[in-house]
Specification:
The chain has 223 residues and is mostly helical. It is built from six helices and no strands.
Length: 223
């Protein structure tokens, strides 16, 4: 297979999202950056927002340029799951008063559940489309992660940064994120169960049809 079949601009953008993950962890975990003036929080927020934006850009470019590849289909969801898992695991240490461990477990567990269901669905030959709840969750998770990062330094943003009350926004968005994770996981599982049942029923009917044809052939008397 020619290298251009899987190395293209959308895939490069996806790879930058994966490469941004250790950068985000380093910024939040290292003492290299000072938190006295909020530089670390603003830089980490910028990295996370930029990485999240690439999720929309690479998919749009892949469809627009007809460059949807197997590698892209593999890397894109992996990059999303790694980014979210890394962000929330790091936030448990970085800002535990806003992101307790049990919330991170629910949010990350939902991502692993969906990945597992998608793998089973793919092995059975069908796909499950992302619901509106899943799309809403993407927006909420950006707000919740950024707010939780900034909340480490500011409870209220300074006036030149709109003066928003960061701590209430962080707490509210994290709770919404947890609820959406649970509801969207249940919604995804219900869609998966419905399709797997339909798939099993069609397979059972095909098998019954084949067996009935075989019986009819076997019942034909020899001339």
């Amino acid at each position: 297979m020619h290298p251009s079949a899987f190395v293209n601009l959308p895939n490069y953008i996806t790879l930058t999202r994966i490469l941004s993950i250790p950068v985000l962890i380093w910024i939040l975990s290292s003492n290299y950056f000072s938190s006295t003036n909020g530089d670390r929080e603003l830089l980490a927020s910028a990295v996370f927002i930029a990485a999240s934006i690439t999720d929309a850009i690479d998919g749009y470019l892949a469809r627009r340029r007809a460059q949807v590849t197997t590698m892209g289909m593999l890397l894109d969801p992996v990059a999303d799951k790694l980014l979210i898992a890394a962000a929330f695991i790091t936030l448990v240490q970085f800002n535990p008063r806003t992101v307790p461990a049990w919330m991170a477990v629910i949010i990350i567990g939902r991502e692993f559940l969906v990945s597992g269901l998608r793998s089973i669905a793919a092995s059975e030959g069908f796909t499950i489309e992302a619901s509106d709840l899943g799309k809403m969750k993407m927006l909420v998770q950006i707000v919740s992660v950024v707010a939780a990062i900034i909340d480490h330094h500011w409870t209220h943003l300074p006036w030149y940064l709109l003066g928003l009350p960061v701590h209430p926004i962080a707490l509210t968005s994290i709770w919404i994120m947890v609820v959406l994770s649970l509801v969207s996981a249940a919604d995804y599982f219900a869609a998966f169960w419905s399709k797997i049942n339909q798939h099993a029923e069609r397979r059972r009917k095909r098998r019954s049809f084949v067996l009935s044809r075989r019986r009819k052939r076997n019942d034909v008397p020899a001339v």
